[in-house]
Amino acid sequence: MFNRWMAVSIVALLLVAGCTKNDNTAVENEDEMTEIPEDEPEEGTNKEELPYQFPLTGVRTESKSGSRAVAVMINNDPKARPQSGLQKADIVYELLAEGNITRFLAIYQSEQPEKVGPVRSARDYYIELAKGYDSLYIAHGYSPEAKDMLDKGYIDNLNGITYDGTLFKRASFRKAPHNSYISFENIRKGAEKRSYEMDEAPSPLTFLNSSELGELNGEDASSVMVSYFNNNVFNSIYEYDEALEKYKRYTNGELTKDYESEEPVLLDNIFIVETNHKVIDNAGRRKIDLSSGGRAYLLQKGKWKEVKWENIDGKILPTINEKQAGLVPGKTWINIIPSSPGLEQTVSFDVKE
């Protein structure tokens, strides 16, 4: 699939070419308003002229979006692939659970797929990430630390332990624990049952405007591989499609796509974050530092650059020269990797000749 693939050391790339930084791609925080001026769009106007933006994608829309974010724990075991509903998520976080296995936190706001899953169990650091978007948090099961947080009401949530067979349905074509699914219809029913408010959108992220998009720079890379402990089953390859101007994602050689529709996951921002991980018990559960900030890589429009990451109001966001870096309007995937072995050993690029 990648006949030009070669793992190129990031250190070598930095020494030869440097990592170009452009302050024009880092913009200050805007007021938390998604309305963009004032004139009503005429019939036939393009997306750039629509008066509103979805807060987590920056994609323009005709009407203001007031939907609350919903964050769903999604299984990434090979027996759970392909998943359902991932292609509709605005943001996906990928982090290690126990062992060398990754799990997804998929955050939905601009789109609501009919079905999401397989749904998996909660961990405390995923709850923290969901809280940053004031999400309704969906999981099936929990670690002891996560159960304590949920029992204390730290975040509004629906859990399959309570609603297995009612809100959560078991698929016949897979075996437990890889067969728990929930529909957005049932998420809405559960929120109503628990009297959760669902009509307040999260605060908007920072997005590049059309002129800033034209000024994007960095080192060329047609694809990038993120390796979790050199485990091919959980390695991710992001390949930039120049015709679509989006990234496709592959795992273990397979395109990441929807189980039902076969629609691929298409991404506009790949954000790879390095932070401290520590195993805390005999089950291999981890403590992951999501507050200290540190090094990161940001991929946009087929180019990459080194940036910093910061936790800003509970969200993991890129910064350049201490200013938030604008995102390309669209969908974002965030890989959070251990600082040992770190970015140089975990991330490799395919460079076009």
What is the first-to-last residue Cα distance? 16 Å
Give me the CATH fold name of the largest domain: YerB-like fold
- Would you identify the CATH architecture of the largest domain? 3-Layer(bba) Sandwich
Query: What is the 3D shape?
Result: globular
Rg computed from alpha carbons, rounded to a whole number of angstroms: 20 Å
Number of strands: 25
**CATH class division of the largest domain:** Alpha Beta
CATH homologous superfamily descriptor of the largest domain: YerB-like
Average pLDDT, all residues: 88
Residues in helices, as a percent range: 10-25%
* Biggest sheet record: 12 strands, mixed
Unreliable stretches covering 5 or more consecutive residues = 1-45
Structural class: alpha+beta
Question: Would you mind describing this structure in some detail?
Answer:
The chain is of the alpha+beta class and 353 residues long. It contains 7 helices and 25 strands. The chain is globular. Mean pLDDT is 88; it is low at 1-45. The chain has 2 domains: 10-33 and 205-350, YerB-like fold; 70-193, 3-Layer(bba) Sandwich (YerB-like fold), CATH 3.50.90.10. The strands form 5 sheets. Strands 3, 4, 5, 7, 8, 11, 17, 20, 21, 22, 23 and 24 form a 12-stranded mixed sheet that branches. This is DUF3048 domain-containing protein. Keywords: Signal. InterPro entries: DUF3048_C, DUF3048_N, YerB-like_sf.
